[in-house]
Amino acid sequence: MEYQRAGDTRAGREETALETMQPILQVKNLTHTYGVGTPFQRSAVENLSFDVQAGEFLGIIGHTGSGKSTLIQHLNGLLRPTSGQVLLNGRDIWAEPKKIRDVRFQVGLVFQYPEYQLFEETVYKDISFGPANQGKTGAELDRAVREAARLAGIRDEQLMKSPFELSGGQKRRVALAGVLAMEPEVLVLDEPTAGLDPAGRENLMANIRDFHRNRRTTVILVSHSMDEVARNVDRILVLKSAHVLMSGTPAEVFAQADALMAAGLDVPQVTRVAMALKARGLDVDPAVYTVEDLERQLLALRKGGAPC
Amino acid sequence: MNEMIETESLRFAYPADEGGEPVFALRGVDLAIEKGSFVVVLGHNGSGKSTLAKTFNAVLLPAGGKVYVEGMDTLDESLLLAIRQRVGMVFQNPDNQIVANVVEEDVAFAPENLGVPSEDIRRRVDEALKTVGMYEFVRHAPHLLSGGQKQRIAIAGVLAMEPECIVLDEATAMLDPVGRKEVLSTVHRLNREKGITVVLITHHMNEAEEADRVIVMDDGKVAMDGAPAEVFTQVADLRHMGLTVPDTVDLLDRLRRAGVDVPLNALTVEACADAIAAEIGNLK
What we know:
Helix content of chain A: 40-55%
CATH superfamily of the largest domain in chain A: P-loop containing nucleotide triphosphate hydrolases
Distance between the termini of chain B: 56 Å
Number of strands of chain A: 10
Structural class of chain A: alpha/beta
Radius of gyration of chain A: 21 Å
Order of helices and strands of chain B: EEEHEEHEHHHEHEEEHHHH
Largest sheet of chain A: 6 strands, mixed
CATH topology of the largest domain in chain A: Rossmann fold
Largest interface: A-B, 43 and 44 residues
Mean pLDDT of chain A: 86
Largest sheet of chain B: 6 strands, mixed
Shape of chain A: globular
Strand content of chain B: 15-25%
Strand order of the largest sheet of chain A: 6-7-8-3-9-10
Low-confidence stretches of chain B: none
Number of strands of chain B: 10
CATH class of the largest domain in chain A: Alpha Beta
Low-confidence stretches of chain A: 1-20
Order of helices and strands of chain A: HEEEHEEHEHHHEHEHEEHHHH
Oligomer: heterodimer
Number of domains of chain B: 1
CATH class of chain B: Alpha Beta
Number of domains of chain A: 2
């Protein structure tokens, strides 16, 4: 029953999307206030509005307390707005509160440190928990599980192991696969690489990039690593104390590195080197975020001689 | 005696699966950590760095070799309390190490267990919270705090034991840049002003820039050991071990390979910019 209903709405939505070309997700004047009526009353997000286009790879950054986590818990209805709306394919996700579960299948949320939420006896069973709850059974369930495992970079022979025998990075892949197996339309990842070593971070991001490229699924990457966001996403939304500070392509956002640092965000070290070089009179564009890019600029500068 | 912690041919193995071979996480580590020093331990996941840290206050005991804390053998059970009082640990997950519903009660937990007189506990709690800059939250509920604030509460909880050494086991891994800076500046200050020995286990290379000494673990052994500028200039070896180098060193290394005569050991942003400006500016 549950799955049937989800299928029906999906077909319906495709039509509306074609007619109006509306964004897949719209956040409109969203406000969420914690502890209303207590001394701790505080708005974690305030009058926030932005759109997410279908197929987009969006990065959301902001330091702790900027409202990132509160915001993303609204995207699949884990939190209900104090005021304002979240629209999924043009429909307010709270239009029918009883159907909020369908929204959770459509917008898959991978929490921070998802490996703490593993609980099943085998990796296979853990990944199948979500899709089985969606109503998938038999061959369809098996296909969803195996495909999600493959996308998350889990090897076949690991499927029958206990998830607790795996390393931290592998456990995280299992948790990611558990969400991918529900085949969400929007995948939201909260700090997916936190706590992993550099090689582990790059491997996991490569899996996520491939997933986005091959499936054209909308992906929202939440991170406080400017570096990681800049290297992966199409567009960045910077949050600061419950508001949107800026939004744009990585290059546009990095052009305002000073404002980012003032907002408590860590710009990549290479950006700071470029800014320091600019301050020393070298003609470099400080809006760089990769070492390769700055290297290229410096070598060109050397060859071309002094521009002044 | 000038060593805070000493290890001798330290080995440790995690128990094996049924029928399997035990997995050695430490395969012979000989280290001496000097009192009052600030030491950063780097290594990829599975290199043994966290296992090493946990042997420093007898959370894990050697399977071979020895660990001495101020000369006390961690294998001697009668010394356990004395060892844990001298070496405090702060772990990765801020939510897993807070035990009370009010900040001050959480910080008081360890001294209470150590049987410290209550007026002394009050003083220690207040001092510890002031030291980490969290005194204004003394009556707050910890779950309403940010990750960086929770970690500072955890550090205050360790400080209330008045330890001589603090070991931070990836204590900054779950924090954002601001939280990371809060924790780092707090431990740097404790090291500088109170002479507390700090052992910081991390993945973040830039946290090692200001350390006295950097130890790189690989495959259960010490692979590199030296001042930051000595360690980070071994670009190829670090990469081979699954580690990255700071952007500054990466950039200098690339420029050198392209024939630009810059030094490799200009670790900080300012030093790096100076070195490049001197060289590329000269060609003008």
